[in-house]
Design brief:
With 70 residues, the chain is an alpha/beta fold. 24% of the residues lie in helices and 31% in strands. The chain has two helices and four strands. The longest helix is centred in the first third of the chain and has 13 residues.
């Protein structure tokens, strides 16, 4: 069973991180968080789970995270 992982940040560098994570076959990316509400809207299949300020709540449900800020 794949472990759930969260992406922290969702800019250009996160695309490379997604490729690497997907190729390991160890994790399932459940979504991402962004810095704040002024962040750009992204065209993606991944779900936005919130913002940096929400991480303490999100980490109650997700054990793994990857910092995808380049």
């Amino acid at each position: 069973m794949k472990k759930k992982i969260l992406l922290v940040g969702f800019g250009g560098h996160s695309r490379s991180c997604i490729d690497v994570i997907d190729n390991t076959n160890n994790f399932k990316i459940i979504g991402y968080v962004e810095k704040n509400k002024r962040s750009k809207i992204h065209n993606t299949n991944l779900r936005k789970l919130g913002y940096d300020e929400d991480l303490s709540v999100i980490f109650k449900h997700v054990k793994y995270a990857h910092i995808s800020i380049g």
